[in-house]
Amino acid sequence: MKQTLATIDDVLHAFKTPPGNEGRKLILQAYEFANAAHNGQVRASGMPYIHHCLSTARILAKIGMDARTVAAGLMHDVPEDTPETLATIAKKFGPDIAQMIEGITKLGKIKLRGTKEEYKLENWRRMFLAMGSDIRTVIIKLADRLHNMQTLEHLPQEKQQRIANETMEIYVPIANRLGIGEIRSELTDLCFLYLHPDAYHSTKNISETQIKEKEIYVKKAIEEIKKELKSEGIIFVDVHGRAKGIHSLHQKLLKHDMDINRVYDLVAVRVIVNDIAACYETLGIVHKKFHPMIGRIKDYISLPKPNGYQSIHTTVFGPDGRVLEIQIRTQKMHDEAEFGIAAHWLYESRKHKSWKDYFLPKKNEVSKKEVEWVMQLQEWQKELGNNPEEFIEGLKVDFLKNHIFAFTPMGDIIELPEGASIVDFAYAIHTDIGNSATGARLNGKMVSLDSTVHNGQIIEIITDKNRKSPNADWLTFVKTSMAKGAIRRSIKRARKAQEE
Ligand code: MN
Distance from first CA to last CA of the chain, Å, rounded? Predict the structure, then answer.
């Protein structure tokens, strides 16, 4: 791995705020404090320890986090690894930054006790607790882990395997759920390198050869698309080429019998425009210029991918009749795809105390979904507090499985984990609808309550007003903690009512 010494200027450059900004002053102060505290320490790579702190902070600045989070990133290892204490940080930098660092320190202190499974469970539990109290802690932890993965070659092989495994099982799904594509894909490729080095290197070879071969062609396509958009009066923010990650290319190759000619999106052209209307106009212009391949237009703007991803993808016969994938999206969709939940810090005021103060007043914004699941998380934590295993199992299904979107007949979008049933759908609309559900109509046909919901379906729940409590058998097939909790509560209440 290439290792260049990160400097505070790199961090400030990534932070992208003009000189004189308060945030920059805070970052500089945090740097001076961390630098003095870690003075003389070196990492396994032989690099000064502060290099790790600066690299973590640079990742945070790059994905658009606020000054306090970047400052906390600079000082994240101070209480754990230096003589300076958390109390000093609180005094110098205030309770908000100190609390974030405390959260990271707590996450780090997992002792290897018991079986591997117990260890994993404990790891999960702490991650979720941290997420519930301050999501920024988990984002710092992701940045910290990314830099540790980037410098993994300096550790003994046995440790490399353990850390890469843990990253794949815990950090990659969390980055995915938080929508931080930038961190997720780099972490995934690094895990792939350490866990399956042979497959990694052979895929990388294929990728490099192909990209080199396509370079001139993609440039030509970009120029032609730009020219066409200009002549049609479409204002674009950017048109650029992007190469697929190594791990995701490998997955695609496996799906297509290792035939690289059947992978159309190894290199794609991405068009970034100002608004949704311009996305569809661009699609029309592209199709007028280049003949589209039938069945390859994917409109993830009107039907987002399970992780919330939005874009229009189309595969066309580009210049010289060669197959080319084109992706069209707005700048906001682009930032959300790369930075996920962190993009909200980018788009909103940078002055907030905690994620709650920051999110809660704006209930109807895009961030609503993320806020809701963090809040649900805390609720269920209380509810299932005395059964940690069930708590974690439920969370894995609710938060980390890929999600699907189904619709009510009124067009409301209901988000569910993959494999969810009609009953889960009903409870996601409203507890009363769940309790009184007797069946459902799907494309005009009746389906049973235990049927699986699929992405994009329009489902009408049929209810019976006289029915007030659910069937206990539903517990055998429902997937979400929300439905499970509601069914149990309703049954309990119905029994109580009968006894009285
Ligand atoms: Mn660290």
Answer: 70
